[in-house]
Amino acid sequence: MLVRNPADLVKPLTLFFEKVLPAKGRKEGSASGGGDPETDAPSAPTRRLSRERAGNASGRRRRLAPERGAALLAVLGGLLLGGFALWLYVRTLAPTVLYYDPAGMYDSLMLQVKAAVLGIPNPTGYPTYIMLAHLFTYLPVEGGVAYRVNLASAVFGALAVAGVFAVCRLLTGRLAPAAAGALLFALGPAFWSQAVITEVYTLNVLFIVADLTVLLLWRRTRRDRYLLLFAFLMGLTMTHHMTSGLVLPAAALFVALTDWRKLTEWRLLLKGAGLFLLGLLPYAYLPVRAAMDPPLNEWDPSTPERFFALVTGRGFESRMFAFPWEEVPDRLALYASLLGSQFNPLFLIVAAVGALYLSYRRDLAALGMLLSLYLGWLVYALGYNIRDVWVYFIPTYLVVAIFAASGFGAALDVVARAGRAVPEVLRLRGAGAAIGGGLSAVAVAALSVLMVYLPFSGFRETYEQVDMSENYHGLHVINAVAENAAKDATVLQNNGVLFYLQYVSGDRPDLKVVDPFPAGGWQSESPVWVEAARESLHEGRRTYILFPGGTAEENESLFFAAGYALVPDESGLFYEVTDAEHDPALQKLINVHRTL
């Protein structure tokens, strides 16, 4: 057949893309603007018309049924994902007391002990975490106090995964992309590794996703009570981890881009300020508990000055923004390496598409909030000079996972609209239209299953990497010292397991346990070990050292130079410091060492 108008050749293709690609500028709160395409309430004229047609309450109930059903599915989805994460984290959970490891566990052991005895943690205090983790010590589960405190991290992590699902569900309006985003974050090695030990980072993510969920619920419903709930949760969030304070300006940007008038309603602002202050109430734990003279109260926040020094992290200011500009490329390379180990490159592409999709759909409120959070957390962590900086990147991984959910949602939207557009463009009727609709549903279902399956790529490797279920090193050290150390001896350690022996187990009260380093001041090779050992030996006490992370060899020359020798215990887990003055064989060994 001859074509009279060449434009007729591309007309079906044009119609196809008009059907597949949604119109820009769709009202915010729609499928891509943060609402739910299956459950969003109809516009005001439509609602009035529906009421006129219904004429009774039963009509309204029929209209609400699909929304309630979708909400129930979302809740069930969140419970299933959270339950799966909890099962996984408990299977790989550390079974007993932890230890200080320069390669990855810095504060876990001390947090275990302080949660058990309600001590005062290092800056910034973490009062909410200590009180919540302490409640877990009363659970009637086997494994002892250390295991129960570890379990707190797993529970917080599982709840955080359910919260990630809720955020992604509210953002995309779809179950499968939300599940994919939540699984992508839950199965990442960084977050998973923190869910199997005693640490503060799973609770930190839980607070963040709770804040974001409430904000997205406010945008969907426009009910002020959600803003007030956010104010309270934001205060509570600030009592846990100070980096989460970046959520506050990001939330202000989100509200401004959604409905800036809310920022001018002074009554609402006053109520919010009051609830924010109420959320800060857990900070009262620090001075109140300090007044009770608890064990392990190094910072003693019993005065206003010491209290503010603790909660603001005074003493760590020099570590913040500590790198000059010329080192920024190296820090970015470090982050890129960690990001690549966290996510398959495919997911990073999907996340980039998700961010672009939010921009395309003009969901500037969500896009602006998420980008500001990502950049804020990234800049802070890049400039923070600390050994375990990799855990400070976890919130950026959270944002990447949310963007990935948006990208998965974009793919699902395109496939669904394409399936509906083909029969219409080809003018299929009857059986042809039904077949086309069936194929569309199959394509959407297949893509949904695929995107939920994809986060499991590399699952086995990650499992083996983070699995702590057979790690009894801390318990072995405790048993070795308890059985082999001399009576009334001194044991030097840094954040070591003997604090657990001393304050939780209550064994070997005769031992004098000393940590010679200030908070955050440990170095793998340091004369501080020698000075502390000399002081103990002058007191007439036998002296032992627990070197973190197998760093005994790095310090051996320091002891030789001072006239001492390190004699390993038969267990090989700790060392006795021996004065060579009364041991000719050791003196000869030291002299040989000095000549070398």
TrEMBL record:
Q: Which InterPro entries match?
A: GT117_domain-containing, TMEM260-like
Task: Identify the stretch(es) annotated as Disordered.
Answer: 25-62
Question: Where exactly are the transmembrane stretches of this chain?
Answer: 70-90, 145-168, 175-195, 201-219, 226-256, 268-286, 332-358, 364-382, 389-411, 431-454
Q: Which UniProt keywords apply?
A: Membrane, Transmembrane, Transmembrane helix
Is Transmembrane one of the keywords?
Answer: yes
Pfam families from the UniProt entry: TMEM260-like
**Alphabetical list of PANTHER family matching this protein:** TRANSMEMBRANE PROTEIN 260
Q: What is this protein called?
A: Dolichyl-phosphate-mannose-protein mannosyltransferase
